[in-house]
Write a structure and sequence with these properties.
The protein is an alpha/beta fold and about 270 residues long. It is about 45% helix and about 15% strand. The chain folds into two domains: about 10-175, Glucose-6-phosphate isomerase like protein, domain 1 (Rossmann fold, 3-Layer(aba) Sandwich); about 180-250, no CATH class. It has a five-stranded parallel β-sheet with strand order 2-1-3-4-5, sandwiched between helices.
Amino acid sequence: MENKIDKSNARQIILDFPRQLEDALKFSKNVKIEGTFDNIIICGLGGSALPGNVLACWLSQSNISAPTIHIHRDYGLPIQIKEGSLIVCISYSGNTEEALSSLEDALMKNLTVACITTGGKMQKICEDNNLPWIKIPTGLQPRMALGYQFIALLRLLSNSGAIPDTADEIIETANLLKAEKLEKEGKKIAQKLKGKIPLVYASNSFKALARIWKIKFNESSKTPAFFNYLPELNHNEMVGFTNIPKGAKLHILIIRDKNENPRNSKRMDLLANY
């Protein structure tokens, strides 16, 4: 019988999340990149950028020595690129124009590059240029495939010697995660948030998780949500709540650069008139 509320079967996908970790270990076990790297640039948008944030969070919490991680959510490549950079482009669909722009820029600059995708144009570019890439399962929303994408990224880097092998730790984590037990607590939180705009706060160490929650509220619940992290928010954002005008509404301010990327400039025009 069709579920009239959960039409995309999101609940079951969440319950199956631990399996993503174990499955990803298998389909990414033989992909590696040769060489050593001074830094790692992870290029992606939306749910496909989240693996990079989780990686940075995990590395800081694990006290593991690793190359510097930069997350790039834009066209082209950031200023941090250099000869010893590893570029990892992630696009769940394989057709995200910003990630493809980063991939094409990396090839043009003759940088070391690898990809994670389900297929699309990114797969074709990888095959045409003999690039290392990991194919992940299709059929999910990118944000719901975080387990596949994160473990694929982790495995890619450990296979290449950039970080230690963590396969045993991943399997242990998958066995410890019991989504059914957490569902009741999740429902309680959801009930408290009904009709409200969530502000998701965390420590600096877990700001990646606050961002993930914010994105899930935006895309899954179709509601405004915002995130920030301590201690910075104590120095500014919290002060803004001391004098909220009655009936206050959100108002968007867009800051523009005269040298803006043309695609971003077009996005700003569309957003301003939305």
